[in-house]
Fold this protein.
Amino acid sequence: MITAARGNMLRCKSWRAEALLRMLENVLEVGERPEELVVYAALGKAARDWPAYHAIVDALRALEVGRTLVLQTGRPIGVLTTHPGAPLVVSAVNNTVGRWATEERCYERMREGKTIWGGLTAAAWQYIGRQGVLGGTYELLRAAQRKHFPEADGRHRWLLTAGLGGMGSAQPISAKMAGLSSLTVEVDPAKIDRLVVAGGLDLVAADLEEALAAIGKAVAAGSPTAVALQGNSATVFERIAARGVVPDLVTDQTAAHDARFGYVPEGLDLADWIRLRESAPREIELRARESMATQVRAMLALRDAGAVVFENGNNLRVQAAEALSPPESERAFAGIPGFMQAYLRPLFCRGIGPFRWVLLSGSEADRDVVDELASRLFPERPEVAEWIALARQHIPPQGLPARSCWLGYGERAALAVAVNDAVRDGRISAPVAFTRDHLDSAGMTHPRIGTEGMADDSDGVSDWPILDAMLLATAGADLVAVHSGGGGYSGWMQSSGVTVVADGTPEARERLRLALDLDSGLGVLRHATAGYPEAQQAVRDSARPESHGPELHWINPNT
Ligand code: NAD
């Protein structure tokens, strides 16, 4: 078992390299199937294979500042002489030209050990377990509540969802933080048990009757509860719809994006599913898509009965569409909006997205110092301090102490620079790595997830993550990654990832400021260019004296 090193002992020649090594170790410490190097999202891997992993570790240990380690699809292919202000690691994963970017070709190459799906944050070593997505799920549920139930605080409402995997297990915790009760359907009892141990569930119901009774009681009392039910989401969603029970919110976070490895078809137990997906992969995919179609039909029925239904970034509608009739599929896309388009884009317009930091010392006390700084620095946005207080109370620890926090343009760099100063002064005992999810304002193109329904029709345009990575490299960010989709996401996405280490030096201060402002600033410009008034306002706001970042200079293509 791999665990991340803690404390102040360096195994590498600089803290910058040591930080990246600890981030790599940490994604395996908190990952789903570390023995296979699988971190999350069904197949998302930290490295190509174990020899590649060990070669990366050796290369990081030997890496001098002024050199750059080059990773190609999860394996190291060389160290080039660059300069001290250059990234220490650049990485590209499974970027494949359009006509070659098919699921079949990807699975075949994966089997042959020739490629991997790097997830968003798996092969870029930025995953922090469910903590990472907790903030996003909380922001999403809050935005949905504000939009649909502006009158209520949510305590008398509930969410129906599925999947308690790496990301999905954030759902019951985030729902409770947002004041909602939740019923989560999960096929694998081990995933349920794991979340019970982590303190994320109040009840594992024996059957649907018990689950609905517990939810009914909690909703009536206005006392949010988190209930899990072992079962297949297609079956359970259909039964709920047939009973005429109407949840307030309905979504899903099984790994539906991958019909072979991410979604268990109805009527199969886990052991048979695991066996058959190797011996009869085509049959498994067909059956999974049929079950997804059943689940989507149930979601539409719940929507017709009054529930608010949305897709939460797992490509469920795209996969189900293959087993739905054309009119049903049309109804699914019209009636079940993607979460980004429906709720979160106004935040991306301001560069606000899933920023995160990792305390490389392993010390909770260090995390407290950063929490305190983040709570204090942005009085004009009280929701930041509110989130930090909630996160401290509700989020179970996983791996190195870490925090995700939705910060925007200027704010990210302001916090990181303050933390760098605290590392320099010794108020924080060791360096801190700053990073983010790839699903961010500039970093992501996925026409069914991050960029669905863009105002200028740029849903599938992947210039933005590529521009982002180029800018991040010019800033000397410590790690810059460009990932494409893999497995069920083959041909669907392009993303960029970044990690910058606050090691207390003046050079780190400069790198943090540049990289974090460029990254979120490009996000604002992207959305301004697409025509979003909120982003154009964010450009104007950047010129105000109270702006945390430098003034953004946007060249409006329409004038
Ligand atoms: P995971 O593979 O770790 O977990 C998937 C879970 O779904 C597993 O526990 C599995 O047992 C369960 N499952 C599969 N089929 C089921 C079924 N029919 N009924 C009930 N449970 C079933 O994946 P993850 O990391 O949790 O990610 C889930 C999905 O969310 C992925 O598609 C991923 O791409 C997406 N995602 C979205 C966001 C976002 O911001 N919205 C972020 C990250 C990931």
Residues 32, 40-42, 133, 136, 162-168, 185-188, 191, 232-234, 253-257, 262-264, 312-314, 339, 439 surround nicotinamide-adenine-dinucleotide (CB under 6 Å). The longest strand covers residues 494-502.
